[in-house]
Amino acid sequence: MQKPVDELLQSDFINDIEGNAILTFSGVISQDAIVGLGDVLRSELHLAHSLSIVNKIFAIYIEMAQNILHYSNEQVDCNGKSFGKGAIMIFDTSEGYELVSVNLISEKQHRYLEKKCNLINSLNKDDIKEFYLKRRRKIAETESKGAGLGFIDIVRRSGNPVIFDFEPVSEGHYYFYLRSKIITE
Q: How far is C-alpha 161 from the chain's CA centre?
């Protein structure tokens, strides 16, 4: 059900990005793939930016890739492990970078993600910091993993709201497009 990269690049959500793609990947996102692509990304970024900029972009890339790995509705089982399918694209723009992820989600995930992204985008910088700290404490108290820190961390690190969209695919399934803009100038 996954779209090829050339089709994704033609989608309205991605097509309006004015920049050059420095990394595009579409397929199974395993931990090994995240590490390998991350190494390529770091090498490319180190040529032009300070470590603080590289780390910011890399952290957002990791959050997006892990969301696909863990939450994509399109999963592949290999040797008893489950891996998500999706796409990651990173563009070098005149202002900085734009990172995009795309993966298949269910109707239930659609409702949750729309509320979550709208909530996070409605918070100011101080509110985001407080929300983040409360969620971190919740993790420490429950020893759960996650607790929804990924989107909060993306907004905190980028300093910009997340841009998102949903494309209906079939009954009860959508492509979830997520985009983060990092200004480096």
A: 12
